[in-house]
Design brief:
Enolase-like, domain 1; 3 helices; 3 strands; 3-stranded antiparallel β-sheet; alpha+beta; 80 residues
Amino acid sequence: MNRLVYNPSGVCSRQIIIDHENGKIVSVKVIGGCNGNLQGISKLLVGMNIKEVIERLEGIKCNTKQTSCPDQIAKALKTI
């Protein structure tokens, strides 16, 4: 299993930790941000294909910000 630690920018969350294996998400933990929403998103991502997660989350914006925590998860996954 591989671990990605990513420091997002432009959002409330401070760190994203993603465990992945064979192109699939094993676990996601987001430090900071909207706790309940990010816990839910993290559970939904488990078992998903990384490319599909990127396609679904990339470009989501939070209010007037140009990014969001889901968008930052996609950016993190693009670094793999």
